[in-house]
Amino acid sequence: MISLVPRYIFNFIFFVLLQTLILNKIEFSGYINPYLYVLFILTLPFETPGWLLLVLASILGLSIDIFSNTIGMHMAASLLLAFLRPFILMRIAPRDNYELGTLPLPSFYGFPWFFKYSAILVFIHHLFYFIIESFSLQNIIEILLKTTLSTIFTMVIMGVTLLFSYQKKRRI
Amino acid sequence: MRNFLHFLLRHNFTFLFILFEIIAFLLIVTYNQDQRDKYLGSSSKVTGSLYKTINNIDEYLSLKKVNEDLANENAFLRSQMPTSFSQSKDYFTLVGDSTTTNQYKYRSCKVVNNTVRKHFNYITLSKGSKDGIKSDMGVLSNKGIVGIVIQCSDNYSTALSLLNPRLKISAKLKESDFFGSVSWDNKSTQHVILDEIPEHANVNIGDQVITSGYSSTFPEGILIGTVDQVNHPEGESFFRIKVKLSVDFSQLKYVEVVENIYQKQQKQLEEESKQ
């Protein structure tokens, strides 16, 4: 378990830099804003205690916020994601539950499972973020459209990222 | 207390989440201009609606007094309605002492008959001596001067139209205050001639021509028209100014008859001093 810590520290820095330096620059007609950094929270070990999950999520969100000048917004959204993660994991657990020493990754539980797991949480995260961003429910249609498109885009990038790290993670 | 702590500990995940979310939202409304504006706006909306509700309740409690006031006002207005006067429909008197009475009274009339293409044009109005119309009263429309009443029957009256060479009206230039007289030259139904403006006057095209108030018929400052063309006949020391009428006489529908209460006084005095 302890051996995972440096890797997650690396992951944290990697995702913050990737998000703020590259992905935040992508804005297809203002509707597609992928937020890949949530993958960090999604891939935390199953045994992560709740408080640590929330603390990590808020630190991650706040660091993204500081770089993209949206103090508190990503923090609130990723906190919700971290809060809902255990419930979603419980809901979509495989028949013989999660094995000890495994991580929530497609290399352990397969792509369909991971897709279901991440799609739900990413959608909720994006929806919450875009609602906070507009801070009103008046143009909910636009928010939903933005959420859907961005979620699809995030999922695609997420798949590519995971394919790259597929081999490496298998060795753990 | 112990139970409460237990409760907190059991749901520490949820409470921690709520605490963090509150911090996040505080950060959002403190550091993001857009969200802060919306937050402050909606919170003022909340306080605003609260005040409105309190106000509504307050209004309801004071309904009795409001009703009384309204009833009083109703009675007052009813007493001012035309039907509560014994004389005629549009006749009304303003009560007051001699220093505050109106000098001019207006009565609205409908134009019953009107000619513009004859040599001497007359207008027939729908009100007569029954309604308080007398000869020598002025006739106006909302755009300007129309003519002067010359004869009255019980229910109708006839007026000299401004398009009648027999009518001469004292007029002046609004800008420079030089006065002269306006009369029709029998040519165009849209123009009259302003005479007797001295040649040293500064007249520009587009200047307004208004009533002078020297005649006892019209109040001062009622529009007649605008200067259209300035001629200076040779050997004369006066301008001959073509004035474009502000009133379209071929479309006259409703007019007002103006009564000068002090007309008789003024005329009498002027007659006496002439002798």
In short:
The complex is a heterodimer of chains A (172) and B (275). Chain A is 69% helix and 0% strand.
**What's the level 1 CATH class of chain A?**
Mainly Alpha
Q: Which class of secondary structure composition applies to the elements of chain B? A: alpha+beta
Number of strands of chain A: 0
Q: Characterize the biggest β-sheet of chain B.
A: 6 strands, antiparallel, barrel
Provide a descriptive summary of the structure in words.
Chain A contains eight helices and no strands. With 172 residues, chain A is mainly α. Chain A has one domain: Arp2/3 complex 21 kDa subunit ARPC3. The mean pLDDT of chain A is 86. In chain A, α3 runs antiparallel to α4 (73-91) and α6 runs antiparallel to α7 (140-164). The N and C termini of chain A lie close together (11 Å). Chain A is 69% helix and 0% strand. In chain B, β6 and β7 form a beta hairpin. Chain B is elongated. Chain B is built from five helices and twelve strands. The mean pLDDT of chain B is 81. With 275 residues, chain B is an alpha+beta fold. Chain B has helices at residues 2-10, 12-31, 33-61, 63-79, 263-274, and strands at 104-114, 122-125, 138-141, 144-152, 157-161, 169-173, 179-183, 191-198, 208-211, 223-231, 238-245, 254-260. The chains are: A mainly alpha (172), B alpha+beta (275). The A-B interface holds A 50-51, 54, 58, 61-62, 65, 70-73, 75-76, 79-80, 82-83, 86, 132, 135-136 and B 12-14, 16-17, 20-21, 23-28, 30-32, 34-35, 38-39.
